[in-house]
Each structure stands twice: as C-alpha cells, then as structure tokens.
Amino acid sequence: MDSAIAQNINDNRLRSEAARQKDAPWRPIHYLGSKLRALPAIEEALREVSEEGAPVCDLFAGSGTVASWLSRSRPVTAVDIQEYSRVICDAMLNPSRLALPELEARITTAIAESKVSGVLRAARPLIELEECLVEQAKLGEPTGLANLIEASSFMTFSRNHADSRIMEAYLASERMLSATGKPSDLSTMVFRHFGGAYFSFEQAAKLDVLLDVVHSLTLGERRSPLAAILTTASDIVNTVGKQFAQPIRPRDKHGRVKQTLYSQVARDRFKDPVTIFLSSLEKYSKFPLPRFEHSAVRSDYLDFIRLGSFKNGVVYADPPYTRDHYSRFYHALETIALRDDPQISTNTAHGVTQPSRGVYRLDRHQSPFCIRSKAPTAFAQMFGEISRVGLSLVLSYSPYSSEKDSHPRVMTVDSIAKLAKKEFATVEVISIGGFSHSRLNKSELHKEASREAEFLFICRS
Ligand SMILES: C[S@@+](CC[C@H](N)C(=O)[O-])C[C@H]1O[C@@H](n2cnc3c(N)ncnc32)[C@H](O)[C@@H]1O
Fold it and tell me: Which CATH number is 28-95+287-323+371-460 given?
C-alpha cells in the first residue's frame, strides 16, 4: 500500500479513536449494573416516546452514567434515594470550575497540619502498626496483619482484644482522639468508621483531611471535589468486588490465614488517596459546561413523581431487581457523602450481639424493589403515578449475572408487563442483549429472560 495512504488511514483511525474516547462515558465509581453498554439503546428508546431534546427524569440514577450521557442532548433531572448518587450526578451534570493548583496547595498544607495536630496524628499508632504488620506479611508472617484486619475499625473494635500490640495501638489512638477535643469529631469520621476495615488507617485519615478541605469550599466549588472523594474511595477500597458489602476475610473457613493476604492488601492499601483524588478531580473538571438546565435530587422515586414538578418530558427508570440492596454495597460512600456520624447496625448470633462486620449504618435504606412482598406494589405505584401525570416511560429490566452469588430477580418480565399494561396506552418490550434491539414475540421473550438478557419496556402514556 502507498505509504501516504497508509499514513492517512492510520491518522483517521487515531482521530476516530480519540473522538470515541473523548465521547466515551466514564465510570465514576465501581458500580453493580451500570448501564454503560446500554446507553445508545436507552437513548434510542427515549427518542421513540418523546420529542427530540425533551427533558428526561432518570428516576433511579445510581452512578449517574445514564444521566450524564443523556445530558448532552436533553435537560436531565437525576433522582436517587442515596446522597452519594446525588453528589456524583450533580458533579457530572453541573461540574464546578476550580483553580486546581490552589486546591492542591491547600491539601498539602492540610495534610502537613493534620500530621501535627489532626486526624493523621491521632491515627499514627495504628498507621505505624499496620505498616509494620504489612511488612511482616510481605516477609511471610501474615498472622498479625490478619488479626489487625479482623479487629476492624474503631466503631467495631472490641475493647478486650487478645493481641496486646493491637490493643495498645487502638487505645493510644483513642487517647489522642480524646485529646484533640471530641472523640466524635466529624473530621475523624472516615478514620473511625472505615479505617482498618475497608481502607488502610492512613488512607482513611487522608480521606478525612480531603473532606475537611472540600467542606471549607463554597457550595458551588464543592460539587466536583466532593464527588472526586467518592470516586477515590471507590477506587482504593480493599475488597474483592470493589464494593463495601463486607471487608476482606483474612482467613479461610478452617481459620488459616490466607496465603494471598499480603498481595490482596498490597493491591489497594498502598494507593495514595490524594494522588487518586487529584486525577479523579481532573476527570470531573473535563465534563463540559452544561448546555441545558440539569439538576440532581435526593428523593424517594414516588415522592418525587408525586410532587408533580417534573412535567412535559419522559421518565427513564432503572430500579433494583434483586434482593441485594444497593445501600449495602455502597453504605460507606453514603456516609462519606452525608458526612454524618451514624450508629452502626448490630448482629446477634448465639445470644451475643455485636456491631455488624460490614460497619453498616443503622439507617441503611431498604428499597421496596428489593423485597419480594413489596416489589409488585412498588412497580404498580410507579407506573400509576407516572401515567397519572401523563408521562411516558422507558424502563430497564436488568440482568445481574455478572456478580458471583447474586440472587435471582424479584420480578419476572411478564409480571412487570402485566402491571405496566394496566396503566399505559401501549407497552412494548425490546431486548438489548442477545439480539440487538429486537422486538420480541412471547417465546423469544422467555428464551431471552432465561439468558439474563437486558430489556427495555417502552411505555407510552
Ligand atoms: C440499578 S441501580 C441504577 C443504576 C443506574 N442506572 C446506573 O447506570 O448507574 C438502582 C438505584 O435505585 C436506587 N433506589 C432504590 N430504591 C429507591 C427509591 N425508593 N427511590 C429512589 N431511588 C431508589 C438505588 O439507590 C440505586 O442507586
């Protein structure tokens, strides 16, 4: 081939790859059931039931991938019951414009000050012990590290721990937390709740410092950096699936310390939260200034629709479909986003009540969509309220097969279609899984459902 032609083809390929990457949706957090791959199909379905550019309400916005994608062509209202979702969606829809070097300088100062008199100083005994035990694990003696991980965070720590080094380090940190003023100070919250369990003690304390700096910004400036802290937490969390369902288990079922413990810990706990925060913030700051008016709301789906403030548009809904509550997988992000100091839920086994190993917040949201007895009513109410205000709906029906040990879906395609047909003028089911965007007859539908395909219900009002 003529080398000029080859060069031209190559240039074009690079240009289209660059354009594709520029336009490619970004995943702000590791998230179960993100709609990344279904975005064009969702957009196409919405075009079928609404005018070009009409407002869309993403009623269960989650990680904000759909909301962010649609915001290029329509005004978007992103709704979710969880605050972490609101924070992430808000940052993607309405990014703040910040002087990054100035913020970086403030963080450097805050870290230095915290080492002298803040959370990094109070955490020092546990940080040093963890460093020493990680080093021992690297040299082939992982028992101390296993004990420390099992001792978990301040919120769950048992005050009569058998390992004296661990006991001393916890008590020394506790004394320093008290000496700095209030042991329940919000500026030590991530360290107390999640240090040792989901992050290294140092990472958790640094997340506290980042939160302190970000909360000192104005509300307008805070949007993107707050979301960047959530992205950082999701990136550095030391668990198998990168969620917060439970901390890693350092021992096997026979009580032996796992040989892989050091590599499992080293994979995440050496990551520097400040570096990851700054690169995440850069990603948020690359989001374009909005072309339309967008908003992100923390609300229950039904309360929001009943408000009646969203009109003349179309609704996209992607509720949960299995018994696994999203709030269990992302409770730490919720606590970081709310920056409160919640009580921890407890478990009782053999007459002994203990704080939950996952350090879950007591008021963790329980979604009716994840409860078999409540899901049909939740769907019926959603369909009823959306059609009552005259809106059309595109509903995702999601597989959950990518996750090990996942539960089957709470509702079948048929049962949902039956409920939707009671409220909407027409209801059409399309598959965006095995076939590409095909309209299905009844037997194909059953075949697809058993293959964990992905569906869209297109409901016209
Ligand atoms: C399947 S996820 C949505 C995923 C999203 N489409 C994405 O691509 O990231 C379901 C979402 O529903 C939210 N949710 C559960 N119950 C809710 C309720 N009652 N009201 C509003 N949102 C709810 C959960 O917090 C979760 O974020």
Answer: 3.40.50.150
Instruction: Tell me the per-residue pLDDT of 145-165, one tens digit each, with 9 for 90 and over.
Output: 999 999 999 998 887 788 999
- Bridge partner residues of 396 (DSSP): 456
3-state SS, residue 419 = helix
C-alpha 291 chain-centroid distance: 26
Residue 432: the pLDDT is: 85
Rounded mean pLDDT, 173-185: 80
Pocket test for ligand 1, best of 244, 328, 367, 395 (most atoms within 8 A of CB): 367
Domain boundaries, the chain: 28-95+287-323+371-460, 100-285
Work out the average pLDDT over 315-337.
Answer: 91
Mutate to test the pocket of ligand 1, among 29, 60, 323 (most ligand atoms within 8 A of CB): 60
Which residue type occupies 158?
S
Which atom of ligand 1 is nearest to 327's Cα? 25
Give the CA distances from residue 221 to residues 27, 237, 284, in Å, rounded to whole numbers and listed in that order: 22, 26, 12
What is the predicted pLDDT for the residue at 92?
97
Q: Between β-strands 352-355 and 426-431, what pairing exists: parallel, antiparallel or unpaired? A: unpaired
Q: How far is the CA of 304 from the centre of ligand 1 (A)?
A: 13
What is the crossing angle of helices 124-138 and 143-151, to 10°?
140
Q: How far is the CA of 60 from the centre of ligand 1 (A)?
A: 4
Residue nearest to atom 13 of ligand 1 (CA): 60
